[in-house]
């Protein structure tokens, strides 16, 4: 392994661990990041001459700590710097063979209720994975300057308001864990919106989110929702390739070829879901993962378990009250009890003003209307959906569906 | 770490509160202050007279302007504060949640700028 590869491997595996450890007591995340990037620069210049150290992680930690102490000496005067210096020097003496893993504590600080919800996922991506602001900005579709500013502000708040880098007490854990999981899922969702994986950064984002999900699940193996989220992401990722055909056209879930699904990921998701179901307390992510699971039984039975899907969406709706869940539930009801029943369920949420501009609502409505034989109304609903869809492949798919209705119509007209 | 807990509430509602309830609230604040003292975290704290007794001052172009009333007219007003010294924000937030004012208004928690 060359020096650059060794440094990169160390960065990949250790970045977040080292940032978390360096910032754990001082809460100075930005300071820890700066010290660490200097340590990586030092590695690239030292290692070619002195050889790759036996324990690159420990080497980087020692150098970064020295940088932190130097900075503290330069920036502060006597009495104030004393505690920081004593703390760091103290830790230096300990000679820890194993660097304690404080990444989860750092994630809890990044997803602290005192941090703006919109910056939590970007902050985790930056501090745990070392993503730069420009990469995060492009994935979250904001300008690099704005993203950079938000990240700086959040890190300043962690330091100046003394947000602790700590795993919350059992009483608070569940509630606070939700914010961590939500941030990870937000990162995954950003990556998932690029279906073909053409955009390297986005594709990467979904994989990195799964990596974070694995990390949280391994550190909190008794938390059912941590396992549930990982199962959900693995299920979705397993079908990434099947969402497009060879010509790049959109393929809806119901028409995907199960042979194209990633069986290894599905199996892993299924066993996680099984473990989580024995830990009690069923939450949102487990239910959503279970919906995926009921879809992929088609691998074996040839048909999705729509009755189970309907029940799961019932439970999800009770927890989330989300109109998006209500739409999916209506589609499930359309499968179990017929299109008319599905439409009735959809009508129950039709008053929600947020749905007027929500493409999946119109696509679901169009599908149900078409199944109920109302081609004219279905055509209008497809037009709404087409107008709201920004992905050209999905738009073409909706147009094909609409033209199928139209051709039926014109034939009728000709008769 | 020192934090200022600023107690915001609706002054008008507060003034119109029946006497018995006001006494209950005073007792609750008394107990809360006692708890802060026992924990050794209190640095200071006072109740403020209503904003009708407030006067605002600013100097513009060398001229001192004195205005009657608070800095800004808001729905809820600053009614009092505690200054506490605790290890971190979570500790400050948990004290803020215990403050009687949190149940009928909002407590803004601000870290003190360390010099």
Provide a compact summary of the structure.
The complex is a heterodimer of chains A (415) and B (115). Chain A has 415 residues and is an all-alpha fold.
Structure description:
- The complex is a heterodimer of chains A (415) and B (115).
- Chain A has four domains: 3-98; 102-240 and 263-278, no CATH class; 291-357, no CATH class; 365-415, no CATH class.
- Helix content of chain A is 73%, strand content 0%.
- Chain A has helices at residues 3-23, 29-50, 56-75, 78-94, 103-110, 117-129, 133-139, 144-160, 170-192, 200-219, 224-238, 263-277, 284-296, 298-301, 306-320, 323-337, 339-347, 359-371, 375-388, 392-414.
- Chain A is elongated.
- Mean pLDDT of chain A is 87; it is low at 409-415.
- With 115 residues, chain B is of the alpha+beta class.
- Chain B has one domain: Alpha-Beta Plaits.
- Chain B has helices at residues 11-15, 19-38, 89-98, 101-104, and strands spanning 2-9, 42-47, 55-60, 63-68, 77-85, 106-111.
- In chain B, strands 2-5-1-6 form a four-stranded antiparallel β-sheet.
- The radius of gyration of chain B is 16 Å and the shape is flat.
- Chain B starts with a strand and ends with a strand.
- Chains A and B meet through loops of A and helix 3 of B.
Please outline the helices and strands:
The complex is a heterodimer of chains A (415) and B (115).
Chain A lengths: L2 H21 L5 H22 L5 H20 L2 H17 L8 H8 L6 H13 L3 H7 L4 H17 L9 H23 L7 H20 L4 H15 L24 H15 L6 H13 L1 H4 L4 H15 L2 H15 L1 H9 L11 H13 L3 H14 L3 H23 L1
Helix pairs in contact in A: 1-2, 1-3, 1-5, 2-3, 3-4, 5-6, 6-9, 7-8, 9-10, 9-11, 10-11, 11-12, 11-13, 12-13, 13-15, 15-16, 16-17, 16-18, 17-18, 18-19, 19-20
Chain B lengths: L1 E8 L1 H5 L3 H20 L3 E6 L7 E6 L2 E6 L8 E9 L3 H10 L2 H4 L1 E6 L4
Antiparallel strand pairs in B: 1-5, 1-6, 2-5, 3-4
The structural domain count of chain B equals 1
Mean pLDDT of chain A: 87
Quaternary organization: heterodimer
User: Quick one: CATH superfamily of chain B?
Assistant: Dimeric alpha+beta barrel
Shape of chain A: elongated
Give me the secondary-structure category of chain A. mainly alpha
- What share of the residues of chain A lie within helices? over 70%
The main β sheet of chain B shows up as: 4 strands, antiparallel
Helix content of chain B: 25-40%
CATH class of chain B: Alpha Beta
Radius of gyration of chain A: 25 Å
| Total strands of chain A | 0
Output the CATH topology of chain B. Alpha-Beta Plaits
N-to-C order of helices and strands of chain A: HHHHHHHHHHHHHHHHHHHH
**H-E order of chain B:** EHHEEEEHHE
Tally of DSSP helical segments of chain B: 4
């Amino acid at each position: 392994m060359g020096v650059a590869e060794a440094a990169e491997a160390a960065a990949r595996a250790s970045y977040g661990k080292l940032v978390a450890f360096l910032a754990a007591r001082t809460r100075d995340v930005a300071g820890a990041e700066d010290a660490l990037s200097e340590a990586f620069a030092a590695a690239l210049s030292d290692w070619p001459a002195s050889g790759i150290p036996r324990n690159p992680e420990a080497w980087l930690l020692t150098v970064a700590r020295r940088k932190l102490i130097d900075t503290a000496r330069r920036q502060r005067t006597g009495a104030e710097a004393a505690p920081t210096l004593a703390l760091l020097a103290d830790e230096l003496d300990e000679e820890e063979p194993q660097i304690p893993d404080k990444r989860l504590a750092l994630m809890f600080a990044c997803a602290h209720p005192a941090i703006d919800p919109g910056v939590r996922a970007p902050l985790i991506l930056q501090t745990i994975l070392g993503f730069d602001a420009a990469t995060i900005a492009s994935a979250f579709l904001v300008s690099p300057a704005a993203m950079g500013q938000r990240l700086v502000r959040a890190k300043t708040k962690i330091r100046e308001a003394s947000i602790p880098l700590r795993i919350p007490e059992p009483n608070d854990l569940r509630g606070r864990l939700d914010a961590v999981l939500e941030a990870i899922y937000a990162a995954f969702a950003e990556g998932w919106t690029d279906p073909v994986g053409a955009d390297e950064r986005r594709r990467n984002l979904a994989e990195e989110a799964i990596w974070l999900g694995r990390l949280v699940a391994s550190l909190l193996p008794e938390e059912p929702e941590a396992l549930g989220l990982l199962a959900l992401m693995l299920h979705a990722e397993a079908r990434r390739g099947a969402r497009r055909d060879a010509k790049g056209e959109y393929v809806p879930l119901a028409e995907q070829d199960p042979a194209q699904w990633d069986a290894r990921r599905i199996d892993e998701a299924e066993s996680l879901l099984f473990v989580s179901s024995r830990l009690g307390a069923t939450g949102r992510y487990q239910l959503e993962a279970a919906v995926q699971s009921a879809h992929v039984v088609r691998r074996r039975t040839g048909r999705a378990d729509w009755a189970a899907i309907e029940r799961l969406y019932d439970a999800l709706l009770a927890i989330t009250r989300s109109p998006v869940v209500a739409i999916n539930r209506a589609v499930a009801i359309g499968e179990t009890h017929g299109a008319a029943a599905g439409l009735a369920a959809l009508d129950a949420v039709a008053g929600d003003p947020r749905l007027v501009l929500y493409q999946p609502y119109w696509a679901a409505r169009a599908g149900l209307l078409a199944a109920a034989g109302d081609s004219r109304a279905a055509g209008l609903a497809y037009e709404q959906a087409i107008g709201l869809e920004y992905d050209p492949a999905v738009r073409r798919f909706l147009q094909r569906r609409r033209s199928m209705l139209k051709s039926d119509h014109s034939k009728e007209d000709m008769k | 770490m020192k934090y200022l807990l600023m107690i915001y509430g609706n002054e008008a509602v507060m003034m119109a509160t029946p006497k018995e309830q006001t006494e209950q609230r005073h007792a609750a604040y008394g107990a809360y202050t006692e708890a802060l003292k026992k924990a050794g975290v209190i640095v200071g704290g006072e109740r403020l007279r209503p904003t009708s007794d407030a006067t605002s001052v600013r100097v513009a172009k060398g001229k001192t302007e004195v205005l009657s009333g608070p800095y800004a007219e808001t729905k809820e007003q600053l009614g009092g504060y505690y200054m506490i010294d605790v290890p971190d924000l979570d500790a400050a937030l948990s004290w803020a949640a215990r403050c009687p004012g949190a149940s009928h208004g909002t407590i803004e928690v601000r870290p003190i700028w360390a010099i």
